[in-house]
Design brief:
The chain has a single domain (about 5-125), classed as Ribosomal Protein L22, Chain A (Alpha-Beta Complex). The protein contains five helices and five strands. Helix 1 crosses helix 4 (about 45-60). The protein starts with a strand and ends with a strand. The longest helix has 19 residues, at about 45-60. By secondary structure, the chain is α+β, with helices and mostly antiparallel strands. The chain is globular, with a radius of gyration of 14 Å. The strands form two sheets. Strands 1-5-4 form a three-stranded antiparallel sheet.
Length: about 130
């Protein structure tokens, strides 16, 4: 396995708490599936903060930021039955990764965490 990209992002939770009051922000940044999943989450601030950091860390690992057609809503973060976070890689995201790194197969790794004041995400892309 070869590491192609690493990204990390940290955010102050109160920033997202304030931004999340605006429905336009939520709808611009998060997919319909992510918003639907948030309805069952008690602390939405941590939910949205961790996902925002994960989207930013993914863009950094990719090395492009949010260019070349990549949008926040394209990057979806979910949790498996054990709570482990993962990226739901749709066709568009797969194609961007494949074109950027000139590869066919890849693995994505995501770790997210929160504390009272901060949320952090770490992403690795490898072939």
């Amino acid at each position: 396995m070869k590491t192609l990209g690493i990204g990390v992002d940290i955010i102050e939770n109160h920033r997202i708490k304030n931004l999340a009051k605006n429905k336009n922000f939520i709808n611009k940044i998060f997919s319909k599936k992510e918003i639907l999943n948030s309805k069952s989450i008690k602390n939405k601030m941590f939910y949205y903060s961790k996902r925002f950091a994960a989207k930013e860390s993914f863009a950094k690992a990719l090395g492009l930021g949010f260019r070349k057609g990549l949008n926040f809503k394209d990057i979806e973060i979910f949790n498996d039955k054990f709570g482990k976070p993962y990226y739901n890689t749709n066709y568009k995201v797969k194609r961007i990764i494949q074109k950027t790194f000139k590869i066919k197969k890849f693995n994505l790794f995501l770790s997210i965490a929160d504390e009272k004041n901060y949320s952090i995400a770490f992403t690795i892309i490898e072939s």
